[in-house]
Amino acid sequence: MKATLLVEILTEELPPKSLRALSEAFLQAVAKGLAAAQLASDSGGRAFATPRRLAVSIPDVASRAARVASGPNATMIAKVNPKARSDAPDTTSSAPSRS
To answer: Does 77 fall in a domain?
Structure first.
């Protein structure tokens, strides 16, 4: 499922002449982070700014990332248990079971 993500931060008084550059930098940072997490593409989105807040709206953000295992531990798990899937839900729980 995908939805529009709105991120808004409240700030101290920002210089009015810097609002455009600050809001665009905020948009680029949020979009880059979402793209790195594979939650959204690195394009699109709108930036908003007032002297006391910055906000970005990014469309088509995934509700959750695909779980991808990589690295030496994932390789070892795959060798030991070939049926183990890296995208399987995490079923571990820290709560003790009652028997």
So the answer is: no
